[in-house]
Design brief:
The structure is a homodimer. Chain A is α/β, with parallel strands linked by helices. Chain A is 30% helix and 25% strand. Chain A has eight helices and 13 strands. In chain A, α3 crosses α4.
Chain lengths: 243, 243
């Protein structure tokens, strides 16, 4: 009986992968995933069987992974970032339902909140919220409510999927909601192509962020009440210096 | 001139460390950290100089790391989980201030939200909040407000530092706040000793979680509106099956 391992490969470079994720990809028979993520690992594990499906075919992709494992193969389903956070692990558990086979193992990986924060400075030293601006699977009203509550709670906020071709103005709309509660000068940042070629970071105030150019390779960070720029980095002190 | 690298070592085991974190610890001269975290890596990197300070001496520990780097040593400051999320990276940037030396590099690691979720199933497939119940550096009123807002926003919630000797009843108090908004039967879980000896998981309803026994080695997960138990695991569907 094969095993299905859901592997979070992190931002995409080998260095930011865990030892455990690397071993899983070394020892599996088949690597399945969205073609962009499969291409990130293909070179390093050339002797594997590779199966991919197009972007929005998540259910088909996960069912394929379960079927291959049931056939006796050791399958690694690769997810960028973490395997659970906006990843495929939940859908795989859903599709297996109450069945006990195939065995499923979830291997965590660095999500963009962690890997992005590290290139910006230290913006997430205190409580924070992670919110996706994609309304493909979530009504916009719910996203709006979450943004509003996160701002009222003085949580630092990390925005995933800030834009795509289909929704170029979501970041602007999100900023307008946040600005009902947060000041114009709240420190913000965009991390792009984290751990990949062209990695870069840009800093803004919340007022400026409204007009920032972002794409699907960007992760957006909004500071909390105590976040400030220190030595050119975005830093959220936790108060250790005061004790 | 030495360099100060702030290393997130993840939950504690080698397997869940990134390739990059492992390299940094292999190549540094000195490893500095809270003694519990230093002990987690001591065996694997025996030929290093080790410097530790007691638990609540964060400022002293980070200043020591900066000073050693200024003396010309390559210093690795180890943090459990991520180096930024409730880690030492921000304090190190604060202490360096506007100075440009020593060079600081932040290496991210698996925070307990990722590593804990992976052993529970897939509870964080959708938007979530990470909130610490430690009021050592944060007024309890602020923690209370954040819990209330996160519940109103239907965010999954991850609680760090759910208890310590000094505050055994914080989880109960947090649950009572959440129960003002969330139902008694909301799926919850506790992940303990993640990636370490004695790793275990326990599932509760929010009503039961009030009375759960937790310590400083526990991370607590509270599901959102769609979270449910599937095949004995805590799963938060994102809605892929409906598209």
């Amino acid at each position: 009986m094969g095993k299905l391992i859901v592997v979070g490969i992190g931002p995409g470079d080998y260095e930011n992968m865990t030892v455990r994720a690397d071993r899983a990809l070394q020892t599996c028979d088949t690597i399945i995933g969205y073609h962009v993520y499969v291409n990130l690992v293909k070179e390093r594990y050339p002797d594997k069987e590779f199966l991919t499906t197009p972007m929005t075919r998540e259910t088909q992709r996960c069912q394929m992974a379960l079927d291959e494992a049931l056939k006796g193969k050791n399958v690694a389903m690769v997810c960028s970032g973490d395997s659970g956070i906006y990843g495929m692990a939940a859908l795989i558990y859903e599709l297996r339902g109450e069945a006990t086979e195939p065995e499923i193992e979830v291997i965590p990986g660095l999500t963009a909140a962690c890997s992005g924060a590290a290139i910006l400075g230290a913006p997430l030293t205190h409580d924070f919220a992670v919110i996706s601006l994609s309304d493909r699977l979530t009504p916009w009203e719910k996203i709006e409510k979450r943004l509003e509550c996160a701002a009222q709670a003085d949580l630092s906020i990390v925005l995933y999927n800030p834009a795509s071709h289909g929704r170029p103005d979501h970041l602007r709309r999100a900023c307008e909601i946040l600005l009902r509660v947060l000041p114009e000068d709240r420190p913000c940042a965009v991390a792009q192509h984290i751990g990949r070629e062209g990695e870069n970071r840009r800093f803004y105030t919340l007022g400026e962020l409204k007009d920032a150019e972002v794409d699907m390779f960007c992760t957006v960070f909004i500071g909390n009440d105590s976040t400030r720029m220190i030595g050119g980095n975005m830093v959220t002190p936790r108060g250790y210096r005061d004790v």
